[in-house]
């Protein structure tokens, strides 16, 4: 008889819970069942056939475990409730759990909840807990731990830290808590991984420190949790490690902070007493932004030696002329062969041509970028842009070196206001600007000429952009254009 035709077989494998309850009871729940299996025994060599079907002995719980119906977990619960042996073996000596449908987590969870033995190891030597963690089935891993999984018994992967590494990297914190609760002993490198985790990093770091994992790595190991937290932008972890006494000098964390452009990290490290001028690779040499350079210099970074010369050289190569400009203004040491006159030419070429192609208000990338933002956004951007310049700090030294874009955007905004007031619409030599004005003339008018004039006057009289054009003389075309814009705005008074 075909075993698949047996009524109980059909009921279990098809997920018919009602039929299972009618047909299966305490007397027959553990009775042997038959099913089709496969074997390579007896297959003729070179026949092109890899296996043949045979009838094998199994149990109802095995049949339920290999199923794929929605009712399979409920059938497993019922079979165990009436006395089914959850750890009975089949013809290969396997219990239902290793036979279970590996794609159905609910079936595996039902087997675990009902007492399935968890110390079975697969061909690679991993037990179920390790397998769940390695395959990121974290819910099953937690369930296995709660039902007696014993990872210390594993022969292979756990001893080499693979499981703990996976947990520290991206598993939820409860798994780590359970592993620690049952006596697992992580190596110090696990804290490094936890500090950089994208999931529950702070909770895992706290758990590991509570389990007496050293906050700093042993000598000879370069994996520093404090630096890892900065690199992965886990700033809560960074601050917590500082509070718990992480070494502020080992591994040169202050240079790492400059490298990742973390001003808050620098402030916290200096507050703890970190050395701003360590031997070797100094933070100033690693800085990537003007804000970090300014902070370091203002707090005592050495600008007379190799580090600042290295920074200037790299900033020139990366076209960070704002950094070079600032360091020159602070009389920093210059690289061999560096000439201020040469830098003036480089800076002017970049600022006046590199980001634009002419002297007009619309002839630069900053203006076009702002127009795109205006086309996609709200008309209130015009007034906000003008006010941002008009109300900027009066002390020109408080304005970022190289920050010319805000002034260029303000000139475009003022051109739109002037055009809306019929004060030079012919000056709008940009199709996007013309199209926007057709739809938003009233909004541009409402900004008011006074706000536009304040902003333009500020650009012309006191701005970094004016400083650059001054180097080309008062007769430079940019000066002529901006004075003409001011004249047009002045002509609106009394209207």
Average pLDDT level:
81
Helix coverage percent:
40-55%
- Name the strands of the widest sheet in spatial order: 1-2
Main β sheet profile:
2 strands, antiparallel
Radius of gyration: 36 Å
Helices, by number, come to 28
Total individual domains:
4
- C-alpha termini separation: 104 Å
The count of strands amounts to 2
Shape: elongated
Low-confidence stretches: 42-54, 153-160
Q: Assess the beta-strand content as a share of residues.
A: under 5%
Content-based structural category = mainly alpha
**What is the N-to-C order of secondary-structure elements (H for helix, E for strand)?**
HHEEHHHHHHHHHHHHHHHHHHHHHHHHHH
Strand and helix layout:
Elements: H1 7-14, H2 17-23, E1 33-39, E2 52-58, H3 60-65, H4 72-81, H5 96-99, H6 105-113, H7 128-134, H8 138-146, H9 162-170, H10 173-181, H11 189-195, H12 201-210, H13 225-231, H14 235-243, H15 253-259, H16 263-271, H17 283-286, H18 290-298, H19 306-317, H20 321-329, H21 340-354, H22 365-376, H23 381-390, H24 405-420, H25 431-447, H26 449-461, H27 464-470, H28 477-490
Antiparallel strand pairs: 1-2
Helix pairs in contact: 1-2, 4-6, 7-8, 8-10, 9-11, 10-12, 11-12, 11-13, 13-14, 15-16, 19-20, 22-24, 23-24, 23-26, 24-25, 24-26, 24-28, 26-28
